[in-house]
Amino acid sequence: MSKTAIFFGTGYEEIEALTVVDILRRAGEEIDMVSITQERSVTSSHGVEVKMDRIFSEVDFDQVDVIVLPGGMPGTKNLEACGALMEQVDAFVKASKTVAAICAAPSILGHRGHLKGKRACSFPKFEDHLEGAQVCQEPAVIDGNIITGRGMGAAVPFGLAILEKLQGKEAAEKMAETIVFKS
Question: Cβ neighbours of residue 119 under 8 Å, at least 6 residues apart?
Answer without folding.
Answer: 133, 134, 136, 141, 143
